[in-house]
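Q: Here's a chain of 196 amino acids. Please give me its 3D structure as tokens.
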Amino acid sequence: MTRALTLEQERTLFKQRRFVAMPLAGTIVWAALGFLAPFVSDYVITWALYIGTGAIFYLGAGLSYVTGERFFSKDRQHTSFDTLFYVGMVMSLLVFAIALPIASIDHTTLPLSIGILAGLMWMPLSWAIEHWVGYFHTIARTLGIVAAWYCFPEARIEAISAVIVVVYLISLVALESRYQSISTSNLYLTSQQHEG
């Protein structure tokens, strides 16, 4: 019989993960949306926003097998912090109940609302891994999106996509740096244990 982990042990296990598959997927989707926007009609880009942002999770799940995170692997240990992440993701998606009716009145609000709402799930992630990256991501993304929405009324999707991609890239660098630091620390601890 396996002994249950304490919450702190679960957090330690959760913190060992890389967390780059989903932001990598978000970067790809938002970059594609930004590049597509000038060449298609409002109708097409509106549907592309819905479909593209809805596909981020599935693309991230696929990329997780490339990045080594393997979301649905049977040997991956599930923790309470995984549940927290999924609850945060569902919470963000439920706020779309506000975005969709507003977008039906004014479709130009769609990149603003989807861009902000999809970034909210980074807050509980930051708390769970005890790292600044999620707080930075949500705050910088929100402020940048609002500024882009007001400053570029004729190119809102392109400007908002650019903000999101830049924030994702900074977040990816921070997450990978964090992961490499943890991996190096783990290697050092393992070598110390073998020497001892």
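Q: Can you summarize the key feature?
A: The chain is about 75% helix and 0% strand.
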